[in-house]
Amino acid sequence: MRLLFLGDVVGRSGRKAVLEHLPRLRQRYALDFVIVNAENSAGGFGITETICEELLAAGADVITLGNHSFDQRDALVFIERQPRLLRPINMPQGTPGRGATVVATAKGEMVLVINAMGRVHMDPLDDPFAAVEAEVADILGRVEEQRGRLLRLVDEDAKAYASYRAASDLP
Description:
Blueprint: E1 3-6, H1 11-28, E2 33-37, H2 49-58, E3 62-64, H3 75-81, E4 85-86, E5 100-104, E6 110-117, H4 128-142, E7 151-157, H5 161-167
Parallel strand pairs: 1-2, 2-3, 3-4, 6-7
Antiparallel strand pairs: 5-6
């Protein structure tokens, strides 16, 4: 599978680069799946619905966020309507949106994308490792027939290298 992960898309110049080049990159490299981290795409603070839709139309399969997920207040509303826009899975229960999604590629391959946020030098959230492990177990239980073929990707917004190292050991 050919995968492209872009991010952190910051502000107008970052959006312009992605919107201009992503369609061509998808075609040129025959990309099967594209994830864009866009938590700072609205002037460096969050994402708007218009920006989200533009990035998806340009070829993003999933958009991830992070600690700036809800800097733009309208994100609290439209994130509920957009299943391919993810906020960190370890945000408190009841937070709008979702932290994971399973998306099929054009070839029918299944991709699980989970968005998590570290806790070192960040807002105090639930344990990202426990949240990711629980979500993986839940998804694998629901897609039993594709279990061995399900690509699992975790985008972690973190400030400490140790968080990224620990995340590499997840199932």
